[in-house]
Every structure is written in C-alpha cells, then in structure tokens.
Amino acid sequence: MGLAGQTLICQVPMRWSDMDAYGHINNVQVLRLLEEARIHAFGPPGGTGAEGEEPPVAVFSSVKPGTQALVVEHHVKFVETLDYRNVPARIDVWVSAVKPASFTLAYRIHDPLTGVVCVKAETVLAFVDTHSGSLLRVSEEQEDALAPYLGAALFS
After folding, report:
1. How would you label 21-54 residue by residue, b for 16+ Cβ within 10 Å and e otherwise?
2. What is the DSSP letter of 6?
C-alpha cells in the first residue's frame, strides 16, 4: 500500500516470452511490467495509440501536444523471484514524491497466487517540451491529480 494515499491496483499479464531459462520473469521484462502498470494507471502518452478506456488518473494521456513524459530513473529491488504464471501479476502503484519538475511512482509486484511481494521499484518521470528539449514543471492540475495517490517512498 502507499501508506498514506490511495493505491492503484493493476493486473498485468505475464507473457511466456518474459520468462528466462530459470523459469523466472527476466529482470528486463520486469521493467516492461512496470511500464504496463504505469500506462494502465496514468494513461498512454497523449497523442499515442488509438482511443480506449480512460485511465483511473489521466496524467499522461492529458498532456498537451508537444509534451513527452520521460523516464529519468528506475530503482528496482528484487525481493523474491517472480515465477512465470499464466495469470496476471498484481502491481500496486502509487506516487511517492512530487517535485517541481518531476514525480516518482512506487510499485510493488506481487506473485499472483501467493501474494508475496517479489519486486519493489520506483520510477522518476519528468515532462519535456519536444520542441525545445526543456524540462517542464509539474502543473497544478497534474499535482492535484497525483495528490490522492501520494504515499510513502520505498527507497531513501
């Protein structure tokens, strides 16, 4: 849980091809699972893909044209092995920090059958103007949308 704020719970399918030779989800594919949860929770980047369902929090899908949401940093800790299963992994997502020009999402990936936390991770994101390459400030509207999900950081 996010400890203080609300937590978004995403069900993300594991693919057969995500598995490594040991039967675990490959560490690189874990980042894909995080991306899928992030997009499920906050929407696909504005102007990409075709219409679909509205995300719970439209932070990415509501950006103005000429704006990109970019990953600045990932911090991933593998707590237990995440074995391939033919059922979706449960991924808890919340906001662990909002700064003037970036925000951080926190995640916990659970084994879908045992509920054991297998991965803890955080992703720092920033908005960038595609024309100038300049970093953009997190807007008041974005802060307001993220505020209900603000909770504890996983890493210091």
Report:
1. eeebbbeebbbebbebbbbbbbbbebeeeeeeee
2. -
Q: What are phi and psi of 104, to 5 degrees?
A: -120, 135
pLDDT one-digit tens code per residue, 8-17: 999 999 999 9
Burial (0-12, 13-18, 19+ Cβ within 10 Å), 85? middle
The domain spanning residue 139 has which CATH number? 3.10.129.10
Give dist(CA 86, CA 50) in Å, integer: 27
Is 105 a member of any domain?
A: yes
Count of residues for the chain? Answer: 156
| CA atoms of 17 and 101, how far apart (whole Å) | 36
| Interval 29-69: pLDDT, tens | 999 999 999 999 998 877 676 777 788 888 888 888 889 89
| Residue 12: Cβ-neighbour burial (10 angstroms; 0-12, 13-18, 19+) | buried
Q: Domains in the chain: how many in total?
A: 1
Residue 133 included in any domain: yes
Residue 1 within a domain: no
